[in-house]
Amino acid sequence: MESQLTILLPIAAVWLAAGVVADGLPRLLNTRALHRRTGWLLALTLTGTALTAAVLGGGLFDAGTAPVDQAAAGLTLAAGPALVATLCSVRRIRRLRAGAGAFASAPATPAPHGLRAAAAHPLVGLPLQVTALATVPALIAAAGTDLGADPGVTGPAITVGALAVAVIAVRHALRHNRFAERARPAAARSTRTAGALHV
Prior knowledge:
- This protein has helices spanning 2-24, 31-61, 67-74, 76-101, 113-119, 122-134, 136-142, 151-183, 186-198.
- The protein is an all-alpha fold.
């Protein structure tokens, strides 16, 4: 039980750290900080993906009762979000890092609203945070509490998890829309506002 927890804790910690770093990206005010943090985020995401894949792969090749097998069984819920993070988030983080790196000659340059809107895109932070959330049941099971054993607990736990994912998704969408609105040219915004006033 303890060795299973020892395997899962670093994975959960890496995904949690990635989710926290991703959440803070849109709040960064200069391109130098954005470039540095996207580098951290890329490293954390790739590390989390590698660790998750290693444990899941170990569980597939050795189906038994070893700690790695039990950890792999617990991580099956996190496999989907981790795959989305690998396919979608990594590509967006790389593009964001390249965009921030274009201002390397002027490190004190304020981060453009377009870059901050890209950093706030739901596909940057949402898969990472959902993956971190999906590791929680595995940690709880490894600590000795089986959520699936009691139907009276399983239903509410699934509901709470689904609500948490929905809240995180709505928060990301609203924040992205706010930054995307700021990134639009002022002339386009004023024309749209004037048109709305004439109607």
